[in-house]
Specification:
Rhopdopsin 7-helix transmembrane proteins; 425 residues; 3-stranded antiparallel sheet
Length: 425
């Protein structure tokens, strides 16, 4: 049976602890968790009256790290959990309580928020426990269920980011040919969840409990992956985890936003050429367009950078663990990975905290909705808030243009439609 490391729940990253315990080369077990060292030798065992026949592993020895490091981990994970839950819940509430916010783009944003809530609920607590304690404390069912739900939630979150970028690409680059309907958006969301349920299913099969291996510690269990063979394990990691849940989404997201950037920067305001009237209006519209272009460029850089920085460290670590040679117990590389792995996990989970800030809080409509919910005395029901956007400017200019000519009004309608399609990014 092949036992290696899980991807999103790094509980099984510490399977290496199993190798250290079962080593026959020494009687001393040194668990490399910063300054925390557990010493176990025959002299100590024989000198204790309480452990003449067995080694008593006290709860104090369950901790992987020193109290200071443990406190830092708890604080960091708690901050991400709190901000992420509150932020994503606000996103869902704004869309469902404001009928005017129920657009195709916002459907995907809500699905992203729901997926991120699941990531925060199922990934963060279990991951924190795995980083703080050596044994798995929650039993076989939770070992399988938590591992599976983690895979589903992370896959759904990442692939929803792909759907958001693809929908924006179609709306801006092909506004008349490929507009996505609400019905189509619902189907895409269903497909995202079905795909996530299927792609993570092997974790429900192959995650199980495994004893540490020593007779004295036979009741101490770890939650680990046990595959029938190493080839199957590596194939699943490369195809399902690395490619389908990171590399391909990264390529699609980058390509979509790059295409949007090219489209916006190369295109003039529709109807601008050949116009001999309304010169002042065109100047004002051009100023709005330039601000929108800068917004698109900034959005592209921020979206791609956040996605890469959030998940890249974790995938680098697991590519090394899955595809590289076994770690040497006590080596410098092992020490580095034991410290960096929890940080990489935290960065991956923080993407679920960043998403509502990135896709919602920077949007004036969402900010207005958040303020309306806070001011509202009702916990449910419809809210009304300012949904103003560049269309306010367009309406004013359209009113001016109507007084001049119907032709200019039609041209401004085209211009405003184009500007509004950019403004919802």
């Amino acid at each position: 049976m092949s036992e290696k490391y899980s991807l999103y729940n790094l509980k099984s990253f510490h399977d290496n602890f199993d190798q250290i315990l079962t080593s026959n080369q020494a009687d001393v077990m040194d668990f490399n968790s910063n300054n925390t060292t557990i010493v176990w030798d025959s002299e100590y065992q024989n000198s204790s009256e309480d452990t003449q026949n067995s080694f008593a592993w006290s709860p104090d020895m369950w901790l992987r790290h020193s109290p200071i490091v443990t406190a830092v981990y708890c604080l960091a994970y708690t901050v991400v959990f709190g901000i992420g839950i509150v932020g994503n819940c606000f996103v869902v509430a704004v869309v469902f309580r404001s009928p005017r916010m129920r657009t195709v783009t916002n459907f995907f944003i809500v699905n992203l928020a729901l997926a991120d809530i699941l990531v925060l609920i199922f990934c963060l607590p279990a991951t924190l426990l795995g980083n703080l304690f050596i044994p798995w404390l929650l039993g076989l069912f939770m070992c399988k269920a938590v591992s599976y739900l983690q895979g589903v939630a992370v896959s759904a979150s990442i692939n929803t980011l792909v759907a958001v970028s693809a929908e924006r690409f179609l709306a801006i680059c092909y506004p008349l040919k490929c507009q996505m309907s609400r019905k189509c958006a619902r189907r895409v969301i269903i497909l995202i969840w079905l795909f996530s349920l299927v792609v993570a299913f092997p974790w429900a099969l192959y995650f199980t409990l495994s004893s540490i291996g020593e007779e004295q510690l036979e009741d101490t269990m770890l939650c680990v992956e046990k595959w029938p063979d190493e080839v199957s394990e590596i194939t699943y990691f490369v195809v399902a985890n690395l490619c389908l849940c990171y590399l391909i989404p990264l390529i699609v997201i980058t390509a979509c936003y790059f295409a949007i950037w090219i489209k916006v920067w190369k295109r003039n305001i529709p109807g601008e050429k050949g116009a001999n009237t309304g010169k002042n209006i065109n100047i004002q519209m051009e100023a709005v367009m330039q601000r929108s272009k800068l917004k698109v460029a900034k959005m592209m850089v921020v979206v791609v950078s956040c996605f890469v920085l959030s998940w890249l460290p974790l995938y680098i670590i697991f590519t090394r663990l899955k595809l590289g040679n076994a770690l040497e117990p006590g080596s410098l590389e092992e020490r580095i990975l034991m410290i960096s792995a929890p940080i990489a996990q935290w960065l991956g989970a923080s993407n679920s905290c960043i998403n509502p800030i990135l896709y919602a809080f920077f949007n004036k409509k969402y900010r207005s909705g958040f303020a309306a919910i806070i001011k509202s005395k009702k916990c449910c029901g419809t809210i009304r808030h300012d949904n103003s956007s560049p269309s306010v400017f367009c309406n004013a200019q359209r009113s001016t243009a109507t007084q001049r000519s119907n032709r200019m009004t039609a041209r401004l309608d085209t211009q405003c439609e184009y500007i509004n399609s950019i403004a919802v990014l």
